[in-house]
Amino acid sequence: MVTASVTEATKAKPRWRAVALVVLWAGVGVGALLLLAKSVQNSGEFSRLQPWILLLNLVGVIALLALLARKITQLVRDYRAHVPGSRLTARTVAIFGALVVAPLLIVYLFSLQFLNRGIDSWFHLEVKQGLNDALVLSRSALDLRVREYSRHTENLAHSLLDASAEDVAHRVYEERRATGALEMAVFGSHERIIAASLENPLESLPSRPPADLLRQVGERRAYVSLEPQAGGEYLIRTAAPFTEATGRRDDRYLIAIYEVPTQLAALSEAVQHAYSQYGELAALREPLKSSFRLTLTLVLLLAMLAAIYGAIFSAQRLVRPVQDLIEGTRAVGKGDFGTRLPLPSRDEMGFLVHSFNDMTKRLRRAREEATRSQHVVERERERLAIILARLTTGVVVVDRELTVSIANQAAGAILGTDLSAATGRGLPELTAGNERLGQFVAALGVRFAAGREEWREQLDLDSATGGRILMCACTPQAGADGKVGYVIVFDDITTLLQAQRDAAWGEVARRLAHEIKNPLTPIQLSAELMRRRFLTSMSPPDAEVLERATRTIVQQVQTMQQMVNAFSEYARAPEMRITHFSLNQLAGEVADLYRPHDARVDIRLELDERIDGIEADRGRVRQILNNLVINALEALDGVATPRLEIATRFEQGGDAKYATITVCDNGPGFQRELLGRVFDPYVTSKPKGTGLGLAIVKKIVEEHGGRIDADNRPEGGARIRVVLPMTDSTRSAPGARDRRGELRREIV
Amino acid sequence: MRSAQSSVASMLRVGQFSPRWVLMSLILTACVPPAHADALDGVLQVRSAYVSVEGGVFLLHARIDYPVNPVIRDALHDGVTLTVDLDVRIERERRFWLNADIVDLTLRRELDYHAVSDRYLVRDVRSGNQKSFATLEEALSDLGTVEGWPVLVEPQLAQGSYRISVRAGVRRGRLPASLRALMFWTDDWHRVSEWYTWLLPV
C-alpha cells in the first residue's frame, strides 16, 4: 500500500508539471493572439502594445532557447557519459527532428519564393505606366476646365472694371447663375466684400480666401487652384485682379469658385486613389518583403525550436521508462531488490514495468527466504561446531587428498598437534615433527589408496612420547561442490584398553593369589617335615641331596609366596590412610635410604620449596618412591656414570594444587616397543623382577586420583612422572578429573 | 547594417530606448540587408504648448516642428500617406503612488499628396475635415499649429497638481491592418518626439 502511494506520488508530479506547462503555453498563446487582434483593430493600441508583444515574443524565444539549450546540453552530456537510453533518445530526436525540420524548411523556402514573386508581381511596369497615363489624362481634362474657368474669371473681372457698384453686384449674380459657379464675389482692399453671390442660400458670406490667393492677387496676378474636397468633389478656385490694360491700379479682385462635374471628379478621384494606393504599396515593397521574410524566419525558427524541443521532450518521455528499467536492472544486478519503478502509463511499457516490479518483489521475497535459510544453516553450523568442540571424540573431515575441511579440538589433542589452523591445508603438511600424526596420515593414506572409503578399525600409533590406540571410523560424504569428502571419527581408547587390561590383571592376580598361595604352605611344610624326618636318618650323601632339595623347595616356595604376595598387593582393594606429611622430606628419606646401597650412583634431589605438605597415604607414596628408585637403580646397572634425579614440582590449575614427582635416570631407557605398556604387569626388560613394580606404582597413583607417564628423555635415559593431588578435597572434587585430563594432554 | 546603425542613431537622438527599438535594432542588425536611409531624418519636437480655459473647457495650443526633406517629399509624391499624431496625456500626481491617468488623447491627422490636383492634403481623421495646400511647407505649417484643441473639462479635475505631457509622432500611415502587424519589423518611418511636459496646479 505504501509502495503504491509512493508510486502514485512520483507519477502525479510530472503529470502536474505537464498540465501546468500546457496551460502556461496555451495562456501565452491566447494572450498573444488577443494582443494581436486588438492591435490590428486599433493602430493606437498597436503602438502601445507593440513593445509588450515583442517582449512577450522575446521572452518566449529566450525561454524556448534556454529550455532547448538545457535539454541539448543534458543530452550531449548523457551521450558522452554513455548514460543508458541516451543513444536511443539521440536517435529518436534525430529522426523526429529530421521529420519535422525538413518539411518546415521546404515550406519556408517555398513560402519565401512565393512571397517574393507574389509581391513583385504587384508592381508591373505596365501598371505604373498606365497609372501615370491616367493621371496625365485626368490632369489634362481638369486643366481644360481650370483654364476655361480662369479665363472666364479674368474676362469678367476685366469687364467689371468700369461698372458701378450696383452693376457689379448684378453682373456677379448673373454671371454666377450663367456659369453655374458655386460662389462668386468681389473683394476690395483688406478683404472687404463688395459684391457676392452664393449658390447655397443658407450661406450669407463667401468663403474666406486662402493666403496664397491673397498673396498672388496682391501681386496683381490671376490665381487658380484645383482643390480636392473630402467627399471626392473638386473645386476650382479662380481669382483675378481688376487690372486694366493701361495699368490703372484697382484694389478689387474677383473670386469665383466652380465645381468640377461629378463624373469627371469621380473619375479623377478614382485615378488619384489608384495612384496613391499603388505608390504606397510600391514604397512598401521592400520593407514588406523584408517583414515577410523576417516573420517567416521567426516563425520557422520558433517552429523548429519548438519541434526539436518537443522531439527531445517526447523522446525522453518515451525513453524514461526504458532508462528506469535499465537502472532497475542494474540495481537488481547489484543485489538491490527493493527497486520499485514508477508506472509510466497503462500501455505495453506500463505492463513491462509492472512485470519488472512484480519480478523484483518475488526476487526480494526469495532472497529473504534464502537469507533466513542461511541463518538457520549458520546457526546449525555454529551448534555443530560447539558440539564438535565439546566432543572428546576426534572428528576430521578431509577430501581424497587429505585436505582438512573440518577438525575439532579433540582431534588435535588426540593426534598431538594443533589443528585449529589446519582448515584448507593438507594433513601431510602438518606431520613434520609429529610422529603420531604421521602414522595416522599414513594409515589413512594406505586405506584410501586401497580404495577403501568406509571402514572402522583400531589404529595403533607408536611414538617416542608414548603409544596411542585409536578406534577410527571413516565414512564417505558428498561435499557441496560435488567432491567426495571423508568424515573420520576416532577416539583414544588407550586408557580404556589399559583399564580393561588392569581389570583383567587384577582378576588374574586375585585368582593367582587365591589358587597358588593356598598350596604353597602345605608344600613348604611338607618339605620341611621331610627334611626334619629323614635328614637324620639318611646317609650323609642322601642327606645332602635331601637337604639341597628341600632347601630349594622351600626357597622356591618362598619366592613364589613373595610373588603371590606381590600379586595380592596388586589385587588388593585400596585401604587408604590419608595423612598430611612433607613430600620433600619423604623424597629425601628415600634418597638417603638408597645412597649407601650403591655409592656409585649419583642420586640428586631437586625439590620445590612450594610443596610444604601433601595429603596422601604416606606409606603408599613411599612405596611409589621406593619402586621408582629401585626401577631406576636396576636400569643403571652397567652404566659408566650412573645418575638418578628425583625432582618435585608444584603445579596449580585453577583452585587445584598438584605435586609432580619426576624420577629420571641416564640408563638405556625404555624399549620402544614396550613404551606403551610399561605399567602393565609382567612387562619388564630386566632379567630379574616380577614385572609388577611399575604396575603397582600406577595402581597407587590412580588410587590417589593422580596420573603417571613414562617416556624416554631426548638426551637418553628413562623418565617417569607422577602427578598427585596435594589435597584430599582436590582428589574428590569434580574438577579433578578434568584437571587430570588437561595434565594428560600436557604430558602428551 | 547601415540601416540598423542609423536607426540606433536616430533612437539615441530622440532619447528613445524602448524594448521595441532594442529588439528591432538587434534583429535588423542580424537579419536585414540595408534597405533605405531614415526617411524621417530631421527635427521632430514640440516647440511650445500650453492650455487655456474657456467656459470650463481646457483648450490645448501647441507648436510642433515636423521634419521636411526631399525623401518625405518624394515619398508623398509617390503616394505615401503620413500619419501625424499629437498625443496628450494628463496625469494627477500622487505622492505615494503612481500618477493617475486622467486624459490620454491622440489628435490624428494625415498628410498626403494629391497628384491630380498637385496639392498637399491635410485631413483630420476623426472629423474627416480636409484642407489642401499648394506647398508641403504650408501643409506642415498647418499641421504644426494646433489651436484650441479641447482636451479636458473642469469636472474632471480635483484639487491637486496635474502633469500635462504632449508628444508628436510621425509614421507612415494608412497601411492595411494585416500589413501593419508585419511592418513593425522594418518600418523606420516611425518617430515620436520627446514628451513636452509641464505642471498645471489646480
Could you characterize what this model shows?
The complex is a heterodimer of chains A (748) and B (202). Chain A has 748 residues and is α+β, with helices and mostly antiparallel strands. Chain A folds into 5 domains: 30-122 and 282-332, no CATH class; 138-260, PAS domain (Beta-Lactamase), CATH 3.30.450; 391-492, Beta-Lactamase, CATH 3.30.450.20; 498-570, Helix Hairpins (Orthogonal Bundle), CATH 1.10.287; 576-747, Histidine kinase-like ATPase, C-terminal domain (Heat Shock Protein 90, 2-Layer Sandwich), CATH 3.30.565.10. Chain A is 59% helix and 16% strand. Chain A has helices at 2-41, 43-80, 86-121, 125-159, 165-179, 211-218, 262-333, 348-390, 409-415, 435-449, 494-535, 540-571, 583-594, 618-635, 693-703, 728-732, 734-747; strands at residues 183-187, 193-198, 223-228, 234-241, 253-259, 394-399, 404-407, 455-461, 468-478, 484-492, 578-581, 602-606, 614-617, 643-653, 656-665, 707-712, 718-725. A 5-stranded antiparallel β-sheet of chain A has the order 2-1-5-4-3, with helices on both faces. In chain A, strands 7-6-10-9-8 form a 5-stranded antiparallel β-sheet. In chain A, a hairpin with a 5-residue loop joins strand 1 (183-187) and strand 2 (193-198). The two termini of chain A are 68 Å apart. Mean pLDDT of chain B is 78; it is low at 1-37. Chain B folds into 2 domains: 1-36, no CATH class; 39-201, no CATH class. In chain B, helix 1 runs antiparallel to helix 2 (19-31). The radius of gyration of chain B is 19 Å and the shape is elongated. Chain B starts with a helix and ends with a strand. Chain B is an alpha+beta fold and 202 residues long. Chain B has helices at 2-13, 19-31, 70-77, 136-143, 177-183; strands spanning 45-54, 57-65, 82-92, 100-114, 119-124, 130-133, 145-153, 161-172, 190-192, 196-201. The longest helix of chain B has 13 residues, at 19-31. In chain B, the strands form 2 sheets. In chain B, strands 3, 4, 5, 6, 8, 9 and 10 form a 7-stranded antiparallel β-sheet that branches. At the A-B interface, helix 1, helix 2, helix 4, strand 3 and helix 7 of A face helix 2, strand 4, strand 5 and helix 5 of B.
